[in-house]
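Customer escalation, tier 2.

The customer says the design service returned an amino acid string that "doesn't look like it belongs to this structure." They asked us to rerun it and document both sides in this ticket. The original structure tokens are below, unchanged.
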């Protein structure tokens, strides 16, 4: 059971990181610019985009502000990515 939960957590964090990266790239922002806007270190942004950090709610809000969007927009994109990945694994 623990491995299943860890897999779900990892997949969710990877999808969140991808959603944040997609938004950043769409806005033509560097990691440094997002980090400055969110008052975070650039390496933290890198870790988030790579699915290595489990963000707090307040940090997610800071990312949304730095990316000039709502938290719900980031979550919808995350769910879209995670749902796509889940369907792709089901077809294997």
């Amino acid at each position: 059971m623990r491995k299943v939960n860890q897999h779900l957590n990892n997949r969710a964090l990877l999808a969140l990181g991808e959603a944040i990266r997609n938004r950043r790239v769409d806005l033509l922002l560097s990691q440094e610019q997002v980090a400055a806007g969110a008052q975070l270190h650039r390496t933290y942004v890198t870790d988030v985009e790579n699915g290595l950090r489990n963000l707090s709610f307040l940090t997610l809000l800071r990312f949304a502000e730095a990316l000039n969007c709502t938290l719900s927009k980031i979550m919808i994109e995350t769910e879209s990515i995670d749902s796509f990945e889940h369907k792709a694994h089901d077809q294997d």
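Tier 2 assessment: The sequence is consistent with the input. The domain at 2-91 is CATH 1.10.260.40 (434 Repressor (Amino-terminal Domain)). The two ends are 22 Å apart (CA to CA). Sent an explanation to the customer and offered a walkthrough call.
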